[in-house]
């Protein structure tokens, strides 16, 4: 995983303030130690967080980590689509 401990903590804090029970899964190139560059791809599994919260989360991450490409995918616990299920199984849970 190519996220520092600080980056991981900032991500968790920015999401847990809205739902302390949310599951956060890193996927994509940052989940691969051998890859280079890349944006931060996160799957958020939560029954409390809504799509309109994603802008707030992204803004908090930019304030603390600097502006960079951050992709946020939101899924409800009981409604994991095929993509979210695959990410959950193969990604890295923070």
Q: Care to describe what's here?
A:
By secondary structure, this protein is of the alpha+beta class. Helices cover 35% and strands 20% of the residues. Helix 1 (5-16) runs antiparallel to helix 2 (54-65). The protein is globular, with a radius of gyration of 12 Å.
Task: State the gist of this model.
The protein has 3 helices and 4 strands.
Measured as a percent range, the helix fraction is 25-40%
SSE topology string:
HEEHEHE
Shape label = globular
Please, what is the oligomeric state? single chain
Q: What is the averaged pLDDT score?
A: 93
Number of helical regions: 3
Number of strands: 4
Structural class: alpha+beta
What can be said about the biggest beta sheet?
4 strands, mixed
Q: Would you identify the regions where 5 or more consecutive residues have pLDDT less than 50? A: none
For the biggest β-sheet, the strand order reads: 3-2-1-4
What fraction of residues sit in β-strands?
15-25%
Distance between the ends: 10 Å
What is Rg? 12 Å
Domain Polymerase beta nucleotidyltransferase: 19-94
Pfam family, one: Polbeta
InterPro entries: NT_sf, Polbeta
Protein name: Polymerase beta nucleotidyltransferase domain-containing protein
List descriptors.
alpha+beta; 94 residues; four-stranded mixed sheet; NT_sf; single chain; 3 helices; Polymerase beta nucleotidyltransferase domain-containing protein; 20% strand
What's the topology here?
Elements: H1 5-16, E1 23-27, E2 40-45, H2 54-65, E3 70-75, H3 82-90, E4 92-93
Parallel strand pairs: 2-3
Antiparallel strand pairs: 1-2, 1-4
């Amino acid at each position: 995983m190519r996220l520092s401990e600080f980056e991981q903590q900032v991500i968790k804090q920015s999401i847990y303030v809205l739902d302390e029970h949310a599951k956060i899964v890193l996927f994509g190139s940052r989940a691969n130690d051998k890859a280079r560059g890349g944006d931060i791809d996160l799957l958020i599994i939560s029954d409390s967080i809504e799509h309109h919260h994603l802008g707030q989360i992204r803004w908090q991450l930019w304030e603390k980590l600097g502006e960079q490409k951050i992709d946020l995918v939101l899924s409800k616990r009981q409604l994991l689509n095929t993509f979210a299920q695959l990410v959950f199984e193969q990604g890295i849970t923070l």
